[in-house]
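Hi there. Long-time user, first ticket. I'm pasting a complex I've been working with (about 764 residues overall). I'd like to know whether the download I got is complete or cut off, because the file seemed smaller than I expected. Thanks.
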Amino acid sequence: MDVAIIGASMTDFGQRDAWIRELLAEAGARCLDDAGVDPGEVDHLYVSNMASGEFEGQTGVMNALVADLGLAPAYAARIDQTSASGGAGTYAAWQSVASGASDATLLVGGEKMTHRTTGEATDVIASLTHPVEYKHGVTLPSFAGLAARHYLERYDAPRRSLAAVAVKNHRHGVDNPHAQFRKEISVETVLDSPIVADPLRLYDFCPITDGSAALLFCPADVAGEYADEYAVISGVAGATDTHVVHEREDPTTMRAVVDSGRDAFEMADRDPSEVDVAELHDMFTILELLQMEGLGFADPGRAWEQVEEGRTTRGGDLPINTSGGLKSKGHPLGATGVAQVYEIYRQVTGTAGPRQVPADVGLACNVGGFGNCVTTTIVEAR
Amino acid sequence: MDVAIIGASMTDFGQRDAWIRELLAEAGARCLDDAGVDPGEVDHLYVSNMASGEFEGQTGVMNALVADLGLAPAYAARIDQTSASGGAGTYAAWQSVASGASDATLLVGGEKMTHRTTGEATDVIASLTHPVEYKHGVTLPSFAGLAARHYLERYDAPRRSLAAVAVKNHRHGVDNPHAQFRKEISVETVLDSPIVADPLRLYDFCPITDGSAALLFCPADVAGEYADEYAVISGVAGATDTHVVHEREDPTTMRAVVDSGRDAFEMADRDPSEVDVAELHDMFTILELLQMEGLGFADPGRAWEQVEEGRTTRGGDLPINTSGGLKSKGHPLGATGVAQVYEIYRQVTGTAGPRQVPADVGLACNVGGFGNCVTTTIVEAR
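Hi, the file is complete. Here it is re-exported in full:
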């Protein structure tokens, strides 16, 4: 059964004076409103969230959201795939409709993080790593530094090409009213910022963010009854890489990106050249390059050239992260994968406003951990 | 598409000298072994777990389990519905196969709790309640006490009928090699135990437990290739009740039990009289009675008579909790719903050993919070 997306929303991302429960309710209510669907029509609710218990001491957020949106007696569950929870939620929502279990599934992803220090937030995220890595202090940013150094040396890529990813995504984010940082930066801004994990500097990293995003799914054959503009999920797949990063054969190959991308393209009967717009998981600048290569948008070691040549900016061959990406828009863990699909939905339905690019086929790639788990979703206009 | 269960396992429940990761791997490996399925054949993995982050500071357990079982590149996600996480995992696994996304889905539920004090564990569980309830100190045991008092007074039921639930489940648990407490108790044991939440006493409550359980799902039309003995999920549905308990119209009606049960029976084209064996969520003795009534196994206010008359014990009309239930077997949150379906699978495939009762149709009802979220699953022999 083909599955359609008939509504989408996101809250402002940034430092929000609201708890996770309020953020989820804000996005969820806006999404139902966007679709023009009554709360009573929702059969299933999935909440994508990594760690409301660790961040706020509040669990059971899916049951609270049923109450806040008036969805009872709808079935509800929380789905976690660390920073790829939103992608996993998209896949779960697709499954709930495609299996015939639900005629209307609401997905709301969100995280509340900024009330904790950056160190505390990094520590919660690092709890997903292998305990041996964790005990040696190897957090995700340090893996990113190692991978970046390896990439630059192996492919003779200039350091400034990494900065170019951040510069592009900040430029895109200026036109996103929900983005955390709506300001342009220069290559020098990045190169002059403090070192975090050599060679990566502060502006190579996404921020700590509060926010939420939501999508409403239904069978494609009834989508026209709800919405004039809608999209279908033509491909969706997930994959897992090694839990211990040093066990990977090649430090610049994101195996789960390759695997989930290949399976999603196969399901959609598409190839990378047919994608018009993509949202990639630029938690660190280096990741955008590795995902471009893993998904087949660039040959190994060559993605940096496309970025430097401006081919991934608005107006280029394949605009990437028109939303501003995690870098500028922000990265509230559970919301991110949902917000990626939100942006693709806006693009392929021609409702992206000042960010609009010509697009019939879009792709979102949501990465958990340092590529530990990845979900790739292909969305097309109908 | 009909979905079959072709393998099942559970670890010993109790105080275990093993972390969550080890418990999940133990159940998962045994389940694959039980089904005779190679790890490389698994497409999807779901892990049912409420709070490994809060209990152990370890997240990403689904990715770790992919590594420990050699499942890569299988897709993996964690699903949480508080103490009903195992039921939600069963529903998610059903959806993953029924949607065509996976030809073999492994579900592993587990929780590691006993390294924390009872107070700490109760506090983690209480974090699922509404913050107003939580701040007033209303934990789940106190709700159970209020509901029990209301039930006893409203229906003129004797206090000893609640104790009879515990006595029956302890008797059943003696024959379960994996149960935490394999010892018979008497009505007096319950009535003489310390008060926890009047009128409920210590022996009306399930213990804090470590443990894990697993199930392997595939399309029913290929199940015969894997297993001589298998079962199909003929019905599965979930529902959500109010988040704030005092908003409920009737304190002895578990609305989400009623709703999920009705939907599961409708999907299975069965009625309550056709059920041969059931696993109910006896976190507190009173809950077993309320679920019997909510599912249509007894009229409102009359379930206690069936228990007192011995009709829900082995050899009775409808044996309930042949596994020993949460009371005797233990209640490792994320494992419980999976272990319930494990027991039903054993019963309907005639592999329950000394616990065997005549059964073609079985039902499992997994309850989250104080009935906040419920999943009901009907499993039948094929």
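A couple of notes from our side: Residues 3-115+209-231 of chain B form a domain with the Peroxisomal Thiolase; Chain A, domain 1 fold (CATH 3.40.47.10). The mean pLDDT of chain B is 96.
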